[in-house]
Amino acid sequence: MTIWDSLTGRKSSSQPTAPTPEPHDNFTPAPFDPSTAVQSTSDFLQIDPAALHPLAGLNQDTLDYLTLEDTPLDLGSHSALPSRGWSDDLCYGTGVSYLSALTVGGAWGLAEGLQKNPASMPPRLRLNGVLNAITRRGPFLGNSAGVVAMVYNGINSSIGAMRGKHDITNSVVAGALSGAIFKSTRGVRPMMISSGIVASVAGTWGIFRKVYFDNE
User: Fold this and answer.
1) Could you give the number of structural domains in the chain?
2) Dihedral Cα 189, 195, 198, 200, nearest 10 deg
3) Where are the stretches annotated Disordered (predicted)?
4) Average pLDDT for the chain
5) I want to staple 180 with a disulfide (CB 3.0 to 4.6 A). Which of 34, 49, 185, 195 is the partner?
6) Is 17 helix (H, G, I), strand (E, B) or coil?
7) Domain span at residue 132?
8) Contact, 49 vs 60, CB < 8 A?
9) Which residues contact 156 (CB under 8 A, 6 or more apart)?
10) How far apart are CA 10 and CA 32, in angstroms?
11) pLDDT top residue among 92 and 67
């Protein structure tokens, strides 16, 4: 009944609305059966973990850049560090020799610069003199040792390839030849002196390597 019907006394012609029945859920769950229950996530995922790899399905034989180098490491027959051949020995030997000689030469130049430039000099002049001494001695020894080490490793690897083994004899002979070649333009006497020095250093290194790094 509306407000107008109440004021005029008119009866409403609308019939009362019947109540809406509430919905009922007639679903009956099935009884639990342990034999059919999922035991792990792999039972319903059914995904192969290998298929998730970004390179899954690719043929490695056709991809050259995925092929790993199978060259075995030589653990100590040529040098103190693991090596795959003469190229590794050349890099190791030349680099270590250059850096070691550069450090020794720098220390030599520092001591020489401090001795030749007394503390009574102006600070800037003394610093300049010390730096000049360091840059004169350090690169000189470093470059010389690097060249000798490069020639030595090349000759040592060649002798080892011809003899079929690497021992102290190879090191001494390679040291003598590389020292002689390094001073070949200075005459016979400097060649003999340089040959003896490098051969002695190579022999000492060969004995040290035999004692501390040889696994045989």
Assistant:
1) 1
2) -100
3) 1-39
4) 77
5) 195
6) coil
7) 86-212
8) no
9) 89, 166, 170, 171, 174
10) 63
11) 92
User: Which tokens is 41 given?
Assistant: 């996530």
Render pLDDT for 12-65 as a digit per residue (tens, 0 to 9).
Answer: 555 556 667 666 667 677 776 666 665 666 655 666 666 666 666 666 666 555
User: What pLDDT was estimated at residue 194?
Assistant: 92
User: Is residue 141 within 8 Å of residue 108, measured between CB atoms?
Assistant: yes
Residue with tokens 């040529």: 78
Residues linked to residue 83 through DSSP beta bridges, in sequence order = 74
Cα separation, 177 vs 198, in Å, equals: 9
Distance CA 174, CA 150 (A): 11
- What's the rounded mean pLDDT across residues 162-169? 82
Rounded-to-integer distance, Cα 79 and Cα 95, Å: 13
Count CB-CB contacts under 10 A for residue 2.
10
Q: Indicate whether 69 belongs to any domain.
A: no
Return the bridge partners of 74, or none.
83
> Is 0.70 topped by the overall pTM?
no
Burial of 80 (0-12, 13-18, 19+ CB in 10 A): middle
DSSP state of 54: T
Q: In angstroms, rounded to a whole number, what is the distance separating the alpha carbons of residues 144 and 154? A: 16
Nearest to 89 by CA among 144, 176, 147, 152: 152
Does residue 20 belong to any structural domain of this protein?
Answer: no
The distance from CA 41 to its chain's CA centroid, rounded to whole angstroms, is 40
For residue 67, the 8-state DSSP code is P
Instruction: Look at residue 137 and tell me if it is in a domain.
Output: yes
